[in-house]
Design brief:
Shape: elongated
Number of strands: 8
Number of helices: 3
CATH architecture: 2-Layer Sandwich
Number of domains: 1
CATH topology: Alpha-Beta Plaits
Strand content: 35-45%
Length: 114
């Protein structure tokens, strides 16, 4: 799946807005997406480092409009925890020399509306 197909939309509620301070962002995701797919999609789209992904399958609610009864659709919610203090990664390369990864990560997702 393409990253744009995995992340459907952000979920903005009072509870999810308060969790942004802790680096937790909530998204509606594709029902077939795995945690690893969600992690790679968020890292690619928003250029952040993802620490943890929690997923929840949300059941549809019964709704009624006049005499017609039905159900809303089932959907999948993902709570993504990002690294708000990314440090430089170092590793030992061939020859025993320490090398740094110089990739820059963001500390928040500006597009989220926070």
């Amino acid at each position: 799946m393409v990253a744009e197909d995995i992340i459907v939309r952000p979920v903005i509620t009072e509870k999810s807005s308060t969790a942004i301070n802790q680096g937790k962002y909530t998204f509606e995701v594709n029902k077939k997406a795995t945690k690893i797919d969600i992690k790679h999609a968020v890292e690619k789209l928003f250029e952040v480092r993802v620490l943890d992904v929690t997923t929840i399958n949300v059941k549809g609610k019964p709704k009624r409009q006049g005499v017609h009864e039905g159900m809303t659709s089932d959907w999948k919610k993902a709570i993504v925890t990002i690294d708000t203090n990314p440090a430089d990664k170092t590793y030992i390369a061939k020859g025993g020399k320490a090398k740094k990864l110089d990739k820059k990560y963001k500390t928040s997702i500006e597009e989220f509306g926070a």
